Amino acid sequence: MTWVAAVARLRERREPGVLVTVATVRGHAPRRAGAKLLVGRTETWGSIGGGNIEAVAIERARELNGVARPEPELMDFALNDKVTGPHGVQCCGGAVTVLLEPLPVVEAVAVFGVGHVGLELARVLARHHLDLHLVDSRPDMLTDERLGVLADAVAQIHVHHTPLLPEEVLGELPPGTHVLIMTHDHAEDAALCDAALRTDGLGSIGLIGSAAKWARFRRRLATEGGHDSAAIDRIKTPIGIPGITGKEPATIALSVAADLLRTFESARS
């Protein structure tokens, strides 16, 4: 498997990795500049030449895989018989600099309801490195023609058409997925709020709507759903940046996206 395909596999698994590249070569070395090795939690793909260089790089890459916010770094290796590495001597006679680039697991977001606001929100979020799940019970909201505006997305787009029970998608989402509930139907929104509180491992939960809508939902979640106040308080509503009061779909979408990005930053700090 090529390192490019392996990166895609790690992304699909939502597993962190480190891409190791031979950045510079002076004199003789096992591989030329540009050789690559991808290091996952338990697997590797490709090679930067084997021996001490590769073993040390793999060890350091695995350490970086366990760091919350890893940064790229360089490692220098002298390849001569006067330098003994932890995994032996390499006597090629040259020197190598290796670049380690962490590939962290990207955030995942699920937008339930791809109407006017949902589509505008998807357009904003699609410009970021995300796994973006778009869920709607209406097939006409998820046509290729309508979602064509996302064709050049940076995000990986996952489309879910769920005509009967959109809340079933919650159990299929990756751990830590941030959920935004903004469907066309208040009954659907209410069912999603209840199901989200019953789904383990989700990230933040946001609900679009008025104070009156939330007051009704809160009562139902407590009386019919049996959720306590601490659980219900996990749902953030209204969503978006306070003080941005415009009602246009694009304005709401920008506000919600900015608030969500702020949530990402808070979780990383």
Can you tell me about this structure?
With 269 residues, this protein is α/β, with parallel strands linked by helices. The protein is 32% helix and 22% strand. The protein has seven helices and eleven strands. It has helices spanning 3-13, 51-65, 116-125, 186-198, 211-223, 229-232, 249-268; strands at residues 17-26, 36-39, 44-46, 73-78, 95-103, 107-112, 130-136, 156-161, 178-181, 205-207, 235-236. Helix 3 (116-125) packs across helix 7 (249-268) and helix 4 packs across helix 5.
Low-confidence stretches: none
Main structural class:
alpha/beta
What's the end-to-end separation, in Å?
A: 35 Å
Strand-residue proportion: 15-25%
Number of strands: 11
> Mind telling me the C-alpha Rg?
24 Å
List the helices and strands and how they pair.
Layout lengths: L2 H11 L3 E10 L9 E4 L4 E3 L4 H15 L7 E6 L16 E9 L3 E6 L3 H10 L4 E7 L19 E6 L16 E4 L4 H13 L6 E3 L3 H13 L5 H4 L2 E2 L12 H20 L1
Parallel strand pairs: 6-7, 6-9, 7-8, 9-10, 10-11
Antiparallel strand pairs: 1-2, 1-5, 2-3, 4-5
Helix pairs in contact: 3-7, 4-5
Quick take:
This protein is of the alpha/beta class.
Label this structure with key terms.
single chain, 269 residues, alpha/beta, six-stranded parallel β-sheet, five-stranded antiparallel β-sheet, 7 helices, 32% helix
